[in-house]
Amino acid sequence: MSENTIDIFDRMLAGGIIPTDDPQLPHLWDVVSKTIQLSAALNCSTSVEQTRGRLSEITGTEIDKSTTVFVPFYTNFGRHIKLGRNIFVNHACTFLDLGGITIEDDVQIGPKVNLITENHPVDPSQRKTLDLKSIVIKRNAWIGAAATILPGVTIGENAIVAAGALVNKDVAANTIVAGVPAKFIKAIDFQAGSNH
User: Fold this and answer.
1) What is the C-alpha R_g of the chain?
2) What is the pLDDT, as a whole number, of residue 192?
3) pLDDT tens digits for 132-172?
4) Confidence of residue 5 (pLDDT cuts 50, 70, 90)
5) Closest CA to 126 of 13, 4, 17, 9
6) CA 90 to CA 184: how far, in whole Å?
7) Strand partners, 68
8) Considering 27, 80, 91, 120, which one is annotated as catalytic?
9) 154-190 burial, b if ≥16 CB within 10 A, otherwise e?
10) 9-32 per-position pLDDT tens digit
11) Annotation says 120 is catalytic
12) For residue 173, what pLDDT is reported?
């Protein structure tokens, strides 16, 4: 089976290159256009419930009632965002999800966090080609204000990404990272009697 006969959305989630002349690219742009229209209504929401409903329409799956997302919230696609239960996403976050974003249960995301699954080749002649890699944020992680997570990164369970960090490689479970680029700061010391 030819690469171009596999559904473009499946290829996007699998990661890798989507060339500018891909014959299925118009399908992607159709979803982007719809998301732009739906985002205007999303960001005029006047309650958490209304935000949840409108974001469910953008993602194509129902957002659990235990998950809270504050507006404004920005996404260019939306269909490849998967949100678990009991998640909190603060104001002014940007999720560029063409390559897929999975956020597991109990994650906290601070304001102005950027989750970016999209990149472009270094070669100037190929610069408009998409290079996609997914982001996964594991259970109970905490992403600090204005942190940026780059394509292909997994944030481990219980990990903390400090405010303003630029994360370009995986973060181990139960660790804290900070800086640009983010580096290991320390392991999380669980207190005796905690639930972890």
Assistant:
1) 17
2) 55
3) 999 999 999 999 999 999 999 999 999 999 999 999 999 99
4) confident
5) 17
6) 24
7) 88
8) 120
9) bbbbbbbbbebbbbeeebebbbbbbeeebeeeeeeee
10) 999 999 999 999 999 999 999 999
11) yes
12) 98
Tell me which residue of 150, 78, 144, 160 sits closest to 112, measured CA to CA.
Answer: 144
SS (H, E, C) 147-184: CEECCCCEECCCCEECCCCEECCCECCCEEEECCCCEE
Between the alpha carbon of residue 77 and those of residues 20, 81, 178, 187, the distances in Å are 17, 9, 29, 35
Whether the upstream peptide bond of residue 121 has omega within 30° of 0, thus cis, is: no
Bridge pairing between strands 183-187 and 93-96? unpaired
Q: Which residue has the tokens 């996609």?
A: 132
Q: Are strands 118-119 and 142-143 parallel, antiparallel or unpaired?
A: unpaired
118 closest CA partner among 143, 144, 100, 136: 100
Token look-up 């399908």 returns: 27
pTM equals: 0.94
- Name the one residue in this structure whose structure tokens are 């897929």: 100
Tell me the three state secondary structure of residue 146.
coil
Tens digits of per-residue pLDDT, 36-92? 999 999 999 999 999 999 999 999 999 999 999 999 999 999 999 999 999 999 999
Using alpha carbons, select from 80, 75, 86 the residue that is nearest to residue 37.
Answer: 75
Q: What are phi and psi of 80, to 5 degrees?
A: -105, 20
